[in-house]
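Researcher: Here's the sequence for the chain we discussed earlier.
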Amino acid sequence: MHYVQEKWLPIWDEIAPFRSGKADDPRPKKYVLDMFPYPSGDLHMGHAEAYALGDVIARYWVQRGYNVMHPIGWDAFGLPAENAAIKRNEDPSIWTYENINTQKASMRRYACSFDWDRVLYTCDPDYYRWNQWIFLKMYERGLAYRKHSAVNWCPDCQTVLANEQVVAGLCERCDNAVTKKKLNQWYFKITDYAERLLSDMQQLEGKWPDKVLTMQRNWIGKSTGAEVKFQIEERAEPVTIYTTRPDTLYGATFMVVAVDSELARELVKGRSIEPEFDKYFDSVKAISDIDRLSMERKKTGIFLERYAINPVNGERIPIWASDYVLADYGTGAIMAVPAHDQRDLDFARAMNLPVRTVVKTDAEDPATSWIATDGEGE
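Model: Thanks. This is the structure I predict for it:
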């Protein structure tokens, strides 16, 4: 096999069978982009598996007569690469490009359909200057802003991670435990494009995993509803709850606060429940937001031994902390209406909490069917 590779790779380099055509090429165009590898060493079988998928797609469109652009590159810019080099007492630039060259040699032996005339290095100033240019344009238009909030933090890489970079509570780069940390971070006003983004997401229904679509919708942040104030016993200030269904207020049978929210910590501070709360907090703090929002995941929580007052009927409702509510979504607290919200219903079922139907529909009673009704009804 090695002999065959050594014979044909130079020939392939010469004829470049997967070089994309020029701009005036009359063939229909197709762009295939794989996620760039991180140059932390050599490649492994996981890389081979991932790039085989992109290779199949690119070859498919080539065979169908398309002008396919299939570039490759390296995600080589940022603090993790610098920290990794420093740990090895090496110059970050030298260490990074040595790893890139090692990976490039391995990747060429994969014989994937990459256009080797189109190779990108995100640590190259000629590349990241355009990242800076785009950021400045967004900042000039008020689309970039700073906010203090909880983020996924890798103590080893000393950097913030996206939800997608946290796998089973570990950093996908170094496999060390990820924690939550409050930091000032830059954010983009995705909500300014919410309508268009949400509309296009309808094309993915039934094709993408439910938990990914849920995460994307929450990330987009588009929501229409009302704010309702709930008084908490033994607390001077009321808690503001955001709800998209104020018509279901009479059906609220409990309140849920994000386990990692400041409110949850305040409600248990100095109380007998605090040690138990700490254990629960520690058990869920490394779970990614994607998994926390998954409809498929078993609901967990802890009763905080505190109560709120439903403002429309004066009912005393228990306050729970759970990981299915996010601290940075809305106010980090929700009124739970299990009859008309599936996640609330799943939680109520797991914790044996009451279910009260206040919107009549033709569907079976959620208290017996365990399927929430979310239509307008009566």
